[in-house]
Amino acid sequence: MGLLTIARRASKLALGFDMAKDACKLGNARCVCIADDISPKSLKEVKYVCRTEGVPLYSLAMTMDEVGEQLGKKVGVIAVLDSGFYKKAKTLIEEISLDDITY
Fold this sequence. Notes:
This protein is of the alpha+beta class and 103 residues long. It has helices spanning 2-9, 17-26, 40-53, 64-71, 83-89, and strands spanning 13-15, 31-34, 57-59, 77-80, 94-96.
């Protein structure tokens, strides 16, 4: 989580579903990270956007409340916008398969 805090201070994150979705569609997102307690509907939409746009999806293994405590904003979806932060983050968090999407 410390890495995401540093990325937030450097303005290298898109916080929230809509901002993360826009970052993916614009090609700015290097990966998307989600909290464990986002709704099933949001999870389905995030997986769809990530699969469509070719963006890897990762689990933070934290709740939205825990993310809020660390980042100062309670969100369940975060897009990482910087390649360096992404390279380090992918070694610390678990990737989520995008193959099990049902439409």
